[in-house]
Amino acid sequence: MSSEPLPSEAAAGRPPLLRVAPLPTIRRMASYLRILRRVRGEGQEAISGTQIAEELQLESIQVRKDLAYTGITGKPGVGFLVEELIGKIEAFLNWDNNTDAVLIGAGHLGGALLGFDAFQRYGLSIVAAFDADPDKVGTQIHDKHVLGMEKLANLIERMHIRMAILTVTADAAQSVADLVVDAGIEGIWNFVPVTLKVPERVFVQNEDLFSGLAVLSVMLQHNRRKDEAAK
Amino acid sequence: MSSEPLPSEAAAGRPPLLRVAPLPTIRRMASYLRILRRVRGEGQEAISGTQIAEELQLESIQVRKDLAYTGITGKPGVGFLVEELIGKIEAFLNWDNNTDAVLIGAGHLGGALLGFDAFQRYGLSIVAAFDADPDKVGTQIHDKHVLGMEKLANLIERMHIRMAILTVTADAAQSVADLVVDAGIEGIWNFVPVTLKVPERVFVQNEDLFSGLAVLSVMLQHNRRKDEAAK
DNA sequence: TAGATTGTTAATCGATTAACAATC
DNA sequence: TAGATTGTTAATCGATTAACAATC
């Protein structure tokens, strides 16, 4: 997986594009890691692409292709060393470094995320929560302090926080995004069903529950139709 | 597209879904609907694919292609009738019918979902929650009763529930899935980072938080690298 | 050795994007 | 009419899958 520029790019005099792996590949890495950590816990030292594929109901060729992005080399006839592969995937995902984040919107969903201590194993630590509701400010949710919005920008700057998790209401989302972007945030994990306008340098990862529900609804409807047609 | 229903089918029922639209199309439908409902609230009567595309930062050709799956016909030079388009998308997603669901696992995330009253506008109603913890059984979370696991199968069968929402712990997920599948569930909205084994007739929609986090982590890391390379 | 599995190159598939005539 | 937009067909792009030699 060389990151050499394509001839056309070189010819055009542009700087070599740093390539990111395909997004579907990146998403699958998280599940590979899950399997690998479990398997390590069971004392298994090597694992084949075939085994990973079976556990995740994927094709082994896809697993092999994906794993190649981490730079690991396997042993034909054997597979990959579990410990090494875990290290490579963690490095690929930058989950071997800790990333600090702030969470804005300490409602039900925000509270649930604050309680997710599994994040620690995924390189994420939420350093504080923020909310506009004076009744919430000053309290703690799952051991995280809830601070007032007026403290947000300053904390981001002072602690060089790069990631913000948005769980505010839809009508507040854009203004909060503006605020954190101004303060220097580089990535937003957005749980609000709103299309945020941000400068190009800021990356937004949208988690849209309703799009998942849409898929499920359509598939349920589709299966029912099939059943009825079969009668 | 040859089997597109005529406008007159609106009263008669729904388009015969022989093929399912591409999954990315289905996911985007949810966001189209969001824009349309807002725009309707503002009193706008027609909307062009161009306008929808701008609001969602998409290409207009993609919006037009997607909307074609609903069977709607627009007016060249004008666009689509907002009210009609909302109806078509709701029908496409089956969100004009109510779907009952059970939620299993009344922890933090499960509780947050129980409190999401927006689901009502997306055709979903959670009729009850279930949990193995005796301390939770008998309580109410956001006005939903929490019942014991021993009542689950019977309620699914009696009420002909087709959808189950899984927010249990990872180690319980497969056995709960087996249970609801046996009881006749046709679709599972799975929030547990576990690959469920289910019969082919059951559709599983996985919502994997960590895969979203993986994308965000990689992009943050990537942007930082680019910045450093630029120096 | 025989069987399993890797890693690469090529083929296929499916979704996105482009082009453009038709039409309001 | 002129400008905007739809809807269709074709081209492109990117990801998945197939094939298979190399190798443990």
What would a concise description of this structure say?
By secondary structure, chain A is of the alpha/beta class. The first copy, chain A, has helices at 7-11, 23-41, 49-56, 60-68, 82-92, 108-114, 152-159, 170-182, 209-230, and strands spanning 46-47, 80-81, 99-104, 124-131, 140-141, 144-148, 163-166, 187-190, 203-206. The radius of gyration of chain A is 22 Å and the shape is globular.
Q: How is the topology of this model organized?
A:
2 copies of one chain form a homodimer.
Chain A: H1 7-11, H2 23-41, E1 46-47, H3 49-56, H4 60-68, E2 80-81, H5 82-92, E3 99-104, H6 108-114, E4 124-131, E5 140-141, E6 144-148, H7 152-159, E7 163-166, H8 170-182, E8 187-190, E9 203-206, H9 209-230
Chain B binds a DNA duplex (24 and 24 nucleotides) through helix 4.
Tell me what you see in this structure.
- The structure is a homodimer of 231-residue chains.
- Chain A is α/β, with parallel strands linked by helices.
- Chain A contains nine helices and nine strands.
- In chain A, strands 5-6-4-3-7-8-9 form a seven-stranded mixed β-sheet. Chain A has a two-stranded antiparallel sheet with strand order 1-2.
- In chain A, helix 2 runs antiparallel to helix 5 and helix 3 crosses helix 4.
- The N terminus of chain A is likely disordered.
- Chains A and B meet through helix 2, helix 6 and helix 9 of A and helix 2, helix 6 and helix 9 of B.
- Chain B binds a DNA duplex (24 and 24 nucleotides) through helix 4.
